[in-house]
Design goal:
mainly alpha
Length: 268
């Protein structure tokens, strides 16, 4: 199957784009507070038992809060495009990207297709008619959407028709779903998977930005070590003063770029 051409957002300079990305709703805090949908992995039997337990735990309310799924889908689409554009800019600058980055770029056209399908199959206002949860982390969201989140979380997003049918059947053995909810199961799974991709993409984008920052400091240090070794300590102090992100992506890239380039770079 030939890959569709992607209409990437135009990028004139990486710093401007990084500033745009960081001013969006994709913040380092959101990357930490919204981790990917991952929970304890369940076997097929455990998934059915969890479906029954979930049905017993769900508390459905009578209120009709405003629809938040479509606005969230639009926001997810925007942030996924921004993350991909940032990774594309890294490739244009011949910066290192990870296999996960490559996967996101290679499959972005498929993600866009799923977003279009979700918008087509979830008409505006439809989710307002679905029963909403009255308590828990998904309070105010459709019950069937939380069912999709739980399936994805406990399967590491590896789901198939058989597993979905078994989980929904186990849930309905305790609390029957409405016909509209059953119709909405595929849509909600699609929305939940896109939500999960948004969370993963934000983390990938910030890890990429942190590696780029590490590259900048590594280049500065290597240049100082070659031209003015005595000034290297000032470069290190400036880096520390800038309060860089001391996470795995920054530290690993900084170490990778400095190792094996002479004893002068042992201190940094």
């Amino acid at each position: 199957m030939a890959m569709k051409p992607i209409d990437w957002p135009s990028l004139e300079a990486a710093p401007e784009w990084i500033d745009l990305f960081t001013r969006s709703k994709a913040t380092p805090h959101s990357a930490e507070s919204e981790p990917p949908l991952r929970a304890e992995l369940f076997s097929a039997l455990q998934m059915e038992q969890h479906g029954q337990a979930l049905a017993g735990a769900h508390l459905v309310g009578t209120s009709r809060p405003p629809d938040t799924l479509l606005p969230r889908l639009t926001e997810n689409q925007k942030l996924l495009a921004q993350a991909c554009a940032l990774l594309m800019e890294s490739m244009r600058q011949n910066r290192r990207i990870t296999p996960a980055d490559e996967w996101l770029l290679d499959n972005f056209y498929l993600i866009e297709e799923q977003i279009r399908l979700a918008k087509r199959h979830l008409p505006k206002g439809y989710s307002r008619s679905l029963p909403k949860l009255d308590a828990g982390p998904s309070k105010g969201l459709p019950r069937v959407y939380d069912i999709a989140l739980e399936m994805i979380s406990h399967s590491d997003a590896r789901i198939d028709a058989t597993g979905i049918q078994a989980f929904v059947a186990a849930y309905q053995s305790i609390a029957p779903l409405q016909l509209g909810e059953l119709w909405a199961v595929p849509i909600m799974i699609r929305l939940a998977l896109i939500e999960n991709l948004r969370r993963v993409a934000i983390r990938l984008a910030y890890a990429n930005m942190n590696r780029g920052l590490a590259d900048t400091w590594a280049d500065t240090m290597r240049k100082s070590a070659e031209e003015d070794p005595t000034g290297l300590i000032l470069v290190i102090a400036n880096m520390a003063r800038s309060n860089p992100p001391i996470d795995g992506s920054f530290v690993a890239e900084l170490v990778r770029r400095l190792q094996g380039h002479g004893p002068a770079l042992a201190l940094p």
